């Protein structure tokens, strides 16, 4: 019965909630302000953390194992190596490069003086075929390299060794640390917002007492406060979203210009901004709702 | 209408506010409740609208044992009782109309009915021209009239007034008591007035119950404050 009455009165409750926000002026503004500041902070941190995450992932993905095939191996043996590498666990992609292609690459990368020298090798190529192997999980790169070493006719495997391993674990730590930091901050911030709302509601405890006096059911009292919380979250997220929209669009262009390389990949502004905006609105409204629910509950006990 | 049988109330702090109190008030009566401060008057009233529960004994209001009402049902029970306080307790950010209408809104009354009913009640208390004023724009007497309007708007069977004239000057106080009497006579509402105001009790003689040390020490239908009290 209470539920049906609550649904039927929903438009009324919304009106009451908006009216309360308006008539409670200063308290509402301070709550909205708290939400605005904290959501802006969360927004900025999310942008940084997500981009660092992307960059470290793209660095890890650019790590490859370089496999040199024995010069004496014939074409069939060389192909065989490729097939065997593909069978290994954790291998994402295998790229074959013939000895002629290898020489071309060498000549291209050489200085002009050496270029002539290397040109002479065209007749009798001292290089062997090669494979570039990409792995799925950068942490497993050492194991994959060892496995490849054991394949017949492989002469040399290079992957950066221990330093690569260290870098991978460092990137991992950056990612995890960032995630923990962002989560902790969100926790703190949500607590702050809930506290502000609680203060605003405590200042209205007489109002709640009077409502109970005239026989308002608990849900009838609670709902306007909860809707009010949602509205405060909603209003509070307007400024952060506008800031995110213009701030990130601008920052993206600038960073692309200055730092852009193949591994420094930033999130494209869209749909990233919309997703993050959605998250901010949900956080604001969610905290407003939950914060006011628990704050009112304290005054509804008999 | 109201019946107390051997009611005792001991607060958690150990204070014994009511001690084996017995009382019977019939429907349609107008009753003063008097007594020194701390004698248990407030506790007695709180038991009636279920702000507090009796430690032992029975409190019957309109045939229901108040102590047995489940917490979640208390709001519905309170709609049968109107309460008026010394400090008015109006919602400061709602207009006079909204304050009175609020008691009907919570009972899911249709909007048109609310408007008619509120207008009628405001007329009864003489404030129909103040419907759109906020409480702080009114005098104390006017605020108390709004509180009374709110208390009677859903036609309760019992109207409890806790020191309704405590903050008002003598002339205004008389106006409030006359209003309560009119409600008692016109609507047949059982009215309980807790008061310290000797002049009022002397002037408008009604049944007067004296509470001392947590029980009824004098109950006279003659009225007046002169039965060796104070």
From TrEMBL, chain A:
A Gene Ontology biological process term: cell division
Chain ranges of the FtsX extracellular domain: 64-157
Source taxon at top rank: Bacteria
Primary residence: membrane
Domain ABC3 transporter permease C-terminal: 180-301
Subcellular location: Cell membrane
Membrane topology: Multi-pass membrane protein
Record-level GO cellular component terms: plasma membrane
Keyword Cell cycle among UniProt keywords: yes
Pfam families found in the cross-reference section: FtsX, FtsX_ECD
Keywords for the protein's UniProt record, in alphabetical order: Cell cycle, Cell division, Cell membrane, Membrane, Transmembrane, Transmembrane helix
Matching InterPro entries: ABC3_permease_C, FtsX, FtsX_ECD, FtsX_firmicutes-type
Bilayer-crossing regions: 32-52, 177-198, 219-246, 272-296
Record bears the keyword Membrane: yes
NCBIfam families, alphabetized: FtsX_Gpos (NF038347)
Family assignment from sequence similarity: Belongs to the ABC-4 integral membrane protein family. FtsX subfamily.
Biological role: Part of the ABC transporter FtsEX involved in asymmetric cellular division facilitating the initiation of sporulation.
Protein name (database record): Cell division protein FtsX
Organism (species): Kandleria vitulina DSM 20405
UniProtKB/TrEMBL annotation, chain B:
Keywords in alphabetical order: ATP-binding, Cell cycle, Cell division, Cell membrane, Membrane, Nucleotide-binding
InterPro entries (alphabetical): AAA+_ATPase, ABC_transporter-like_ATP-bd, ABC_transporter-like_CS, ABC_transpr_LolD-like, Cell_div_FtsE, P-loop_NTPase
Span of domain ABC transporter: 2-229
Pfam family, one: ABC_tran
Recorded topology in the membrane: Peripheral membrane protein
Record-level GO cellular component terms: plasma membrane
Annotated compartments: Cell membrane
GO process annotations (BP): cell division
MF terms (GO), sorted A to Z: ATP binding; ATP hydrolysis activity; transmembrane transporter activity
Task performed by this protein: Part of the ABC transporter FtsEX involved in cellular division.
Protein family membership: Belongs to the ABC transporter superfamily.
Record text on subunit structure and interactions: Homodimer. Forms a membrane-associated complex with FtsX.
NCBIfam families per the UniProt record, alphabetical: FtsE
UniProt protein name: Cell division ATP-binding protein FtsE
